[in-house]
Design brief:
27% of the residues lie in helices and 17% in strands. With 88 residues, the protein is α+β, with helices and mostly antiparallel strands. It has one domain: NAD(P)-binding Rossmann-like Domain (Rossmann fold, 3-Layer(aba) Sandwich), CATH 3.40.50. Helix 2 runs parallel beside helix 3. The protein is globular and about 35 Å long.
Length: 88
């Protein structure tokens, strides 16, 4: 979090201290969803609730298999979706 601040982040949210971090994010932005989310903890459900139409979700790691409800506006964004697997 310190590195993100040093690199210019205006706000950082500690997901361990703020379990419903997407609500805090929407509070900071005045209810506006964001353009980019870097998700390094696999919080896919919360991330989808916080991303704007046409936004980018950058996910690094998801543990286990999950059923995630993808919202129609997310699929309608026409953005490229893909994944990379670094396992051998």
């Amino acid at each position: 979090m310190l590195l993100a601040t040093k690199l210019g982040a205006q706000y950082v949210i500690n997901y361990k201290k703020t379990l419903e971090w997407q609500e805090k994010l929407l509070q900071i932005t005045g209810g506006r969803r964001v353009d980019h989310i870097l998700d390094v903890v696999g919080a896919v459900d919360q991330t989808v609730k916080a991303i704007c139409i046409g936004g980018w979700i950058h996910t690094i790691g998801v543990l286990g298999v999950r059923n995630v409800r993808i919202l129609p506006h997310f699929l309608a964004s026409r953005r490229r979706r893909g994944n990379n697997d670094l396992r051998p």
